[in-house]
Q: What sequence folds into this?
């Protein structure tokens, strides 16, 4: 079966400096029209310059790009927000333990035609995405099952065809098909015990990724601005910005403590935003902190976290918040 000639959408060129606020003279392609699969623009998003340029290399030059970083750093969101500003359709696939080879490639299904059962091949997400101007993002890439990873390996060959053995068909990628991945590790496995279920990846496959970018947490000022934009009710209150700044300081102390091995749970920017939202609900920073973060932590570590809270918030955390076992 011959594959139809791909439809090439119209493009224009935009400046990286104007579109992403990054000090660069580069120009990148942007589709002139949007579609239902284009992510929504988040005007409050802050772009990491190095990671943004890496992602743009993927879109512009068809490089295979992997983004690595701790949870909550915004790896997938970063790719989405770049795609949103380029009007580039995007599809995310989470490679959890339930995703199988059949989900990616396709499978036979039984349908009723003319009152009788018939077998029909239903394409998986990979052949569906490949023939479109589409960015396919594999989230939790290092948690993928071995049979799934070998399916992906063929995709990592630039401009390589994808074979559907059951259909005797080779699918050629659309000229604007792009491939990205996000991972908590770089294929080294669960060395520190944080990410159960991740695998040691085949180095032959890792070598096929053209660019691997590392994404860390945001600078304090940028994180404060994002939290304020997400929870404007809190930011607009008297001393609201000072409170948010202190909350981000608490988060950074947990990250430093995590890096030093003092605690095993850290606050991501997502957790800080949740904390701010819960302050707006409960009108109590301490209660919101307990419900948003401390109840997730090991009992033996709560005393350390209460010290972080005292240092950043200039007030002691109620002992009942720091010491009550989770779920009590």
A:
């Amino acid at each position: 079966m011959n594959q139809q000639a791909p439809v090439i959408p119209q493009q224009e060129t935009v400046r990286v400096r104007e579109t992403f606020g990054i000090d660069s003279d580069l120009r990148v392609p942007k589709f002139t029209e949007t579609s239902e699969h284009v992510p929504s623009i988040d005007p409050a998003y802050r772009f990491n310059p190095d990671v943004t340029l890496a992602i743009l290399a993927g879109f512009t030059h068809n490089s295979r790009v992997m983004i690595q970083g701790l949870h909550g750093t915004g790896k997938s969101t970063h790719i989405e927000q770049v795609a949103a500003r380029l009007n580039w359709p995007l599809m995310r696939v989470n490679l959890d333990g339930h995703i199988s080879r059949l989900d990616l490639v396709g499978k036979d299904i039984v349908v009723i035609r003319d009152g009788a059962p018939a077998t029909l091949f239903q394409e998986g997400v990979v052949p569906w995405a490949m023939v479109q101007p589409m960015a396919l993002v594999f989230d939790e890439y290092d948690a993928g099952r071995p049979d799934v990873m070998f399916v992906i390996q063929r995709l990592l060959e630039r401009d390589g065809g994808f074979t559907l053995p059951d259909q005797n068909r080779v699918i050629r990628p659309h000229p604007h098909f792009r491939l990205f991945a996000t991972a908590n590790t770089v294929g080294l496995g669960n060395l520190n015990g944080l990410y159960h279920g991740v695998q040691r990846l085949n180095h032959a496959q890792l070598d096929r990724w053209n660019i691997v970018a590392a994404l860390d947490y945001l600078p304090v000022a940028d994180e404060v601005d994002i939290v304020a934009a997400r929870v404007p009710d809190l930011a607009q209150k008297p001393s609201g910005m000072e409170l948010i700044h202190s909350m981000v300081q608490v988060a950074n102390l947990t990250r430093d403590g995590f890096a030093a091995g003092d605690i095993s749970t850290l606050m991501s920017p997502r957790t800080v935003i949740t904390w701010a939202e819960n302050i707006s609900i409960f009108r109590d920073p301490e209660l919101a902190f307990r419900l948003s973060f401390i109840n997730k932590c090991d009992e033996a570590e709560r005393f350390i976290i209460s010290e972080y809270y005292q240092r950043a918030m200039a007030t002691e955390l109620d002992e009942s918040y720091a010491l009550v076992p989770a779920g009590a």
